[in-house]
Amino acid sequence: MFFERHEGGERAVLVHPECLDDQQREDPREFQELVRSANVEQVAFVVVTSSKITPRYFVGSGKLEEIRQQVIACEADVVLFNHALFPSQERNLEAELQCRVVDRTGLILDIFAQRARTHEGKLQVELAQLEHVSTRLIRGWTHLERQKGGVGLRGPGETQLETDRRLLRVRIKSIKARLEKVRRQREQTRRSRQRADIPLVSLVGYTNAGKSTLFNTITESDVYAADQLFATLDPTLRRLQISDLGPVILADTVGFIRHLPHKLVQAFRATLEESAMADLLLHVVDCADPERQDNMQQVHHVLKEIKAHEIPQLQVFNKTDLMGMKPRLDRDENNRPCRVWISAQKGEGLDLLQCAIAELLGDDLVHAFLPVPHSLGRLRARLYELGVVHSEKFNDEGLPVLEVRMPKMELQRIILQEGGTLPWDLPDAEPWMKE
Predict the structure, then answer these.
(1) Which of 203, 234, 198 is nearest to 218 (CA)?
(2) Domain membership flag for residue 189
């Protein structure tokens, strides 16, 4: 990669500003979880309580001296701020503390750089890193800021700073072009799914809510899942068979977090489009988290930013085992599923979740009775393979009559593919379709 991040394992002094209003204040426990996820060792925790934020150092002179003493006493390698800092504030703090200073955005970028595994994920992280660091180049090469003349000093006519900026622009343009190609490839895949009438169900939610654990349990996959923030970066899609509905595509996506840097939302546009183009969103919520209501609002904010807030949602309240609760299905005033309480870790309530998905996506679900002639044995086998046959009996002519429940368009497509005709019409047969 053009811009590499460290692999963690450093000693850090954490600085948490408690003086901000509710809209700007960050959760200190979440900050510590971010630090742990970055494989950084916390050696000190400094709380800023002053209501005055200084434009030069963000903190006052007294608190700056306290941080300096902690850095010296703990032999810290880096100071991490639980808030976004201006580039000038980062540089001023580094000059005073004589160590690296990283704000909340830089910490999240570092975690993303460690987690990315696929080529696309690495490109997206690199793009976000480059756009972040491009604002921090000012006065990075002060000794070369002025062009010089004279024998042996005449060069290409640009300072080192200008060269760095030009190289960054070229690299950013190249990465955006490659990600646009990835986006077009994803769009082609989505069109193929749409032509096959296979609905897309996307898992969304706050980071560490249990999306990957649920994904692994329900699809019998082995996607990386861990009790840490941003365990999943690269999207994973699996085909899932839902009773009474048929096949769906389930997508596991990156988790959201409060004040998610806009650069990350833009860089991960190709990935987040899996959520923006979904037919149904499963909003996974950690029901044991005391901040769950605020987390849900933050997820809604990001969904609105990627224009996915109007897609139908089913709330999936996960980790009921931590609350001592039993799985259940809640319905709204229209008797439609609105919330499912499950435990993905224990595998409890997954049957209720699948029933809710089938009901929400099965608006065109039909109850069909199909007398299948012996010449269409492949059709009978196909329906059994899909798991949509509820019963089978024989009519007076000795033909098997299959009772099936599945989406109307999917049923019609399979009938035509296997050599049948529409409408299904055989003598002495029961009505072929009943709503």
Answers:
(1) 203
(2) no
